[in-house]
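FORM 7B: Structural annotation worksheet

SECTION A. Query
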Amino acid sequence: MKLVRTGDQLAGNYFYQKIGTRIDLRGSVDKDGNLTLEEFDPKGNQTGVFKGIWQVDAADGLVTLAGNWSKPPNQKDNDKKTAFSIHEQPIFFTGDAEFISKQIKESNKKLMFEVAANYPQLTGGNNPNFEKFNQAARALVTKRVAGFKKDLQPEEGEEPPPEGSMGSDLSVGYTVVLAQDDLVSIKFEVSSYYQGAAHPNSYSDVLNYDLKNGKQLKLADLFKPGAKFLQAIASYCLADLKKQDKDSAPDEGAAPVVKNYQSWNITKKGLGINFDPYQVAPYAAGPKFVLVPYSTLKDLINPEGPIAQFAK
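SECTION B. Predicted structure
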């Protein structure tokens, strides 16, 4: 959904991934945060109305909309309501650049699997590096899909799955952690289930991209040459993880080695470190997250690097 607020007036649009047709939005929000958004199809016919609350998070300044959607008052069953919750993403492009979502969707009845993998693509603007970002995002997700399908190929002589048994599936979603004219930070959430497994597996993947220089960022690119950034990050993470769960034992999964810090994102307030299930706690505890403030890393950050602008 793309929504612009001008005073108390709201305007924008959204679309459903499966349908792809743009739905226009018009409405308003009052001084108490009560909002009304009417939606219209391409012919101008009203198809629904959102009513809810406009709230601003005091910590990051981002907006959350929550309430109920219903059919227009003049349509049948307009008393039936569907809850909605929409969270603003930190996207700060100055021009007409925007994200669109693409999807790889496959199913195979013989091998009994389904795939639904989403990835972002940049449109608009005049930065030639947008296409390089698009290629990197598409390649990352395509690689995950190809790996999943390869794992499902039966070995020679292996019997196919019995008819009616539970199949395998792969889903990939993503969150725009930060997007501005010079850089983009994306977090992918990957979930897979293989037939016969005790439970699904999930992990994170990331794409941190320098739109100014047209390259994917490595963690080392953020810091001065030779800086012991892993030790500083690990020290903060270990202390924070133990505060989150006093009974945890994250020493190995959060130790200062490269493999433990492959999943990270850039935010305006700090470096976000993602720890996947099993990495620093039992599977039941789920994933863990630590935000390392730039103030902790200030002396190590490359003054010419992409995050120097946030560490001032």
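SECTION C. Observations
The helical segments are 129-152, 229-244, 294-297. Residues 129-152 form the longest helix (24 residues).

SECTION D. Sign-off
Analyst initials: ____
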